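Appendix B, Record 12. Input sequence as logged:
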Amino acid sequence: MSARGDLRIEIVKRTDGGSVLRCTRADGSVTWQRLAGAQAGFFPMHDLTHYAVESVLGTTHSFFGLVAQGWDIEDTTGMGKRGPLGPEAFLVERLVGLMDIERATGSIWDAQTFASQIEMASPDLAPLARRLTDAQLAAIKALRAELFMRWTGIPAGDALSLRFPADLRAAGANGPDLPSIIDEERDERPGDPAR
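Logged structural output:
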């Protein structure tokens, strides 16, 4: 990604109970997804968790980073025209999914618990998962709580708008003591779709 604010994210709370995730890239191109029923209630929280995780960890090759780079939302499953996802995207998706489970069950997990769960499901991600710290996790949860509060306060028919990547360093949320867990482990193969 070239500059801060490469992606404008809008999550629309529709008057019919549905939701829409609309992402506008720096070049003006748009990708979007409309959801109804139970998915309309689940995915805004899931997507906001993605935003918090990717922002705090400084990832650029996960869901919102890939969308900013030109991937369509449906391609971020790893089964679209862009091909398979890289380790960063898989790690973030596992972490976000586990945070969804943590939230749904009312549990409170520390970084080691998340790392252990990720390692059990995806042993190849263990070296990356073990780099997650409690400080990073606390920053993710704090940002996510703020985003959830903003989302629940939005009336039907309005949208929550965000910029990605977020500038969290200025706020101290991802300062020098919270390095990206990905930087040293990124696979730099030419042509790697996760690059």
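DSSP finds six helices and four strands in the chain.
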